[in-house]
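Objective 1b. Sequence-to-structure analysis of ATP adenylyltransferase.
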Amino acid sequence: MDRVEDLGSTAAVGTPDEIARLWVPHRMVYVKDHHQPDHRDCPFCEAPSKTDEDALIVARGESAYVILNLFPYNTGHMLVCPYRHIGGYDEATPAEVAEIGALTQRAMRVAREVMGCDGFNLGMNQGEIAGAGIAAHLHQHIVPRWASDANFFPIIAKTKALPQLLGEVREKLATAWADPPDPAAAPDQP
Ligand SMILES: [Zn+2]
């Protein structure tokens, strides 16, 4: 059942400022008290032990998995994490590096198909000084971008509770992941 939240009907609709006010306060949970988790209280170690629905996991690989960011910069913001509790990209094994790359590629294709995004920001913040919320556990950001960043999903976010929205986004991405777009049908093919 839909829940309707009043997130401020007088706010400017669809501006970057609007998105920032919607999403950014939640991110502070990650950086509270400058606490860096060890593997026993690390959300990225704990997530795979839950169901995909509860943990907002989009897909699971052999050595890494894809999860929706609970505190997204933008709608559809995914993280690719190795299962191992390592902080540095240079600590990842060749197999982990390869799978993180492959999962990132597939996440891009799925997000483009499901959400019609125009571009992406990809990246890893290495260390707290570089902006990593959970520096102790490596995670690659995949942030979908739209020409205006004023797309369909943030508009829904104005009228639905955040957990419900994230659950719906996860469902759409996970469904498309199971039935991936055909690379031969990509628009850049002659
Ligand atoms: Zn961890």
